[in-house]
Amino acid sequence: MRDELILATGVWCAVSMRLHSESSGSGGRVALLLHGMMGSSGSWRRVAPEFVSRGYRVIAVDLPGHGLSPRHPSLAIPDVAASVVETVSLLVDAPPAVAMGHSFGGVVLAAAIAELAPGRAIYVDAPTSSRGGWDRDAMRAEYESDRVPRTVEGLRATRPFYSERDCEVEALAAERFDPETAAGIASGPGGRWTPSSSPPSLMVRPAPSDYVSDDDARMLAARGVVVRDIPGAAHSIWYSDFERFMAAIDDWY
To answer: What is the dotted CATH code of the domain comprising 6-252?
Structure first.
């Protein structure tokens, strides 16, 4: 299902579309997982079983232009958020018990939080704002360039903490990634997507972090968000420090 993008009298009307998702588990509680830029639902392949073992039904979504989800060159972050909300509403009858977003997926989660209304929210090294307004052609070229080395061989060489299966999953995600959709999002309007304590929220970040500064962490803590640092971790924390990543979540619960 897709609504058309309508621009009238300067008002942005949201696009929404049904996204591809992967489900696992059969618990009564739902855990929603949103991957980062150039990832896919498969990026959560180690995390999803952990939530299943804790009694959750896991729904991992491919965001627009990623994995097997539709492409669209004219999306903005609110459109991506609306697409996530529409997809989840078609899959479950009640709000997710927990929703987790990594990086760009965390930005989308913060933008969708009011409509998703999860019981808890987990942000994984997710920036608190998106500048927007980038040059579309420049961003398309940058995304194209960034995904070229993300082959199995390239990932094996640059991410020694990846398993062979991790390399395969992320190489496939890069192959399926649509730079045109991503460039459209980057060139659209930005905004500030700052988590708060409602619902109860956790920010897990590496230390140091290129995405969540110490000032950001203090601001989030002042807003009631619990911040957990994992020193020396990579941006995709669960790949480099899986045990500490899951421990940070379990300790918060």
So the answer is: 3.40.50.1820
